[in-house]
Amino acid sequence: MGTVSVIEGHDAVHTIQVRGRVEAETSVSLRQALVTTMLHRQAAAVLVDLGGVTEMDPMAVGALSAAHDVARDLHLAFTVRVAQSPIAGQLATVDLPLSP
Questions:
Q1: Separation in Å, CA 54 to CA 1, 70, 79, 95
Q2: What is the pLDDT of residues 59-73, one digit of tens each?
Q3: What pTM, to 2 d.p., does this model score?
């Protein structure tokens, strides 16, 4: 099972750190963290760090894609970091702002 944590950084930059195997339950936690961070914590920028993810459920990919659309509507910077993650290839086919 994977884990999701939110780190509030300086200048309203929030990092959502995801680790492990992201299955249905973790996908729900990820979606909740994305919504809370973007809509309720007044983040100026959101960085989703997937560097420690070993496997990702399609629901989580959908949550990231939807969050990217919402961030664009809210004029928030939104970046997905996939450095050293085996899921980088899986996300390369989705319209997400990926960062090494």
A1: 10, 26, 19, 20
A2: 999 999 999 999 999
A3: 0.91
